[in-house]
Hints:
Layout: H1 5-31, E1 67-68, E2 77-83, H2 91-101, E3 106-109, H3 111-116, E4 129-132, H4 145-163, E5 169-170, H5 179-187, E6 191-193, E7 197-198, H6 208-218, E8 223-228, H7 236-239, H8 242-251, E9 255-257, H9 259-267
Parallel strand pairs: 1-6, 2-3, 2-8, 2-9, 3-4, 5-6, 7-8
Helix pairs in contact: 4-5, 6-8
Amino acid sequence: xxxxxxxxxxxxxxxxxxxxxxxxxxxxxxxxxxxxxxxxxxxxxxxxxxxxxxxxxxxxxxxxxxxxxxxxxxxxxxxxxxxxxxxxxxxxxxxxxxxxxxxxxxxxxxxxxxxxxxxxxxxxxxxxxxxxxxxxxxxxxxxxxxxxxxxxxxxxxxxxxxxxxxxxxxxxxxxxxxxxxxxxxxxxxxxxxxxxxxxxxxxxxxxxxxxxxxxxxxxxxxxxxxxxxxxxxxxxxxxxxxxxxxxxxxxxxxxxxxxxxxxxxxxxxxxxxxxx
Length: 276
């Protein structure tokens, strides 16, 4: 069969790409000796996306950084997590509900807010886990390594001083992961924790029973639930219905654990590596 016009156009485009690629490769080889590995990203790639913070030798403290969305376990375990606090508007309400329901949770704390509102967590974190949500809730994927490291390091110090707990997990603001998010976490021996179910508050703001059903129906063993203890008013639809969600999950046999406990449960499953 003869080539159509489209076929000929496509083939010419491929040949042009190959030719240009070959020319680029030759130029790259000629200049390669002068380029450090950390500078080799295309001009359009921000430095925050680089795989390592420098061209010299570097490795995370533990040799790797784990990223966890959920955990592989057959046990009916679920981790309830709260981001962005502590803040006076809703954090006390969340603690009151968790105390009433005798539920453990992991709070990913913003260091700046923790320092300003330390009284909100005094005596209230005993059963809960403290995670790191950076100092000022800045997007780490837009920062260079030193800026991202400072955000995590400063929050870590505040969490340890105020709660007495050593944070082990970092949740990057907005869930954004770039090279600097990973290198900052690796420099402080942190692992990253994201989530597998987010409270869709805006979606179900006018229909809370559907939000409850969405969470209870879709939670499976090893789920990490994301909620917030401050923010836009629509988030209250999740917090006001937390007791019903908790009871609904318990009626299905689920136990609430911290993120670290959930990860440890996953580590007991063959082929699953611990993030600790």
